[in-house]
Amino acid sequence: MAFGLPAVAQSPIKVGFVSTFSGPQAAIGEDMRRSVELAKEHLGGKMGGKPFEIIYEDDQFKPDVGKARSEKLVQQDKVNFISGYIWSNVLLASLKTVVDEGDTILISANAGPSAIAGELCNKNFFSTSWQNDQTPMAMGDYLNTKGVKSLYLVGPNYAAGKDMLAGVKRTYKGKIVSEDFTKWPDQLDFSAELTKIAAAKPDGIFIFYPGAHGVQFVKQWAQSGLNKTVPLYQVFSIDAITLPQQGDLALGTLGAQEWVNDLPGEANKKYVEDFKKKHGVYPSYYGAQSYDAIMLMASAADALKGDLSNKDKVRAEMKKANFKSVRGDFKFGNNNFPIQNFYIQEAVKDPQGMMTVKTIATAVKNAVDPFAEKCPMK
């Protein structure tokens, strides 16, 4: 037994990371992976004095595959934490497997469906992103201040799309001319919706189309000529991943987000500079949220000196959020979703001519998501 002790002491902490690494949305998963690896590098490859390994699994953009990969991580790999999850439908399909049946702590690095923030909140679920409604709520608040009197809403017909459009309607006080839900993820042609928008003549268009879908919508919006007559307002549709393809077509468009690459703070500056140095591009909020997820895990492991055997203690340390977030001060609400600021960002070119986004306003401060009061946890 004496010979076995050093090996036991150094048994690695295991982190599972579920994301999309194949198909048209693989660029998002790769951005997340790059940020996770950068976090590991910044931590010196250790949490709580112990080495940690990351097991990546590809959900293939499919809820059933995501669930199967999550089961594998919990049952076969016996990971200490699971993170990732771009898509709300994938997360919802995997949730019970991880947090209930597997009694494993899950940190969502992106998806934030309303049900998990409310009635389905769980002691094993944490988020380093947002609840889906919050970002569009911030945009709605901002549009009120700018006197935008009417909006046409367009988004994909799945959990996150419904939450996003519901979110902007929570705060926007102008007229909703109409709203269209498009087939997800198959539909990449938005000409029919753009024709309807042209006929309706709203003051603005609000969209939620992540990744490749956002690229397509912006291109077709410009091709239709509507970019000259109807401004585009968006969440999660114009970012560091899509901008290289959207290019000048996206210039001047406004979005809302809880993290922007130019936020002050040493942790954020180091993250952005090191990411750009390694990869030659800006990181996205997907990456920033993934970086924070790893740092959150590390804060709990460090406080417990690498002993993760008592899950109540691990959860208690996670709840403290005692880490240097790239977005500055970080704290959780009762439902383990962040209480945080949201910013308005504009698509611009940096001094080197690279497309990026910059902060132009703070839309909301210390926002608590609207479903927290439905969560029975205190």
Automatic annotation (TrEMBL):
Boundaries of every Leucine-binding protein domain copy: 12-349
The entry's keywords: Amino-acid transport, Signal, Transport
InterPro entries to which the protein is assigned, alphabetical: BCAA_transport, Leu-bd
Family matches, as Pfam families: Peripla_BP_6
Signal peptide extent: none
Official protein name in the record: ABC transporter substrate-binding protein
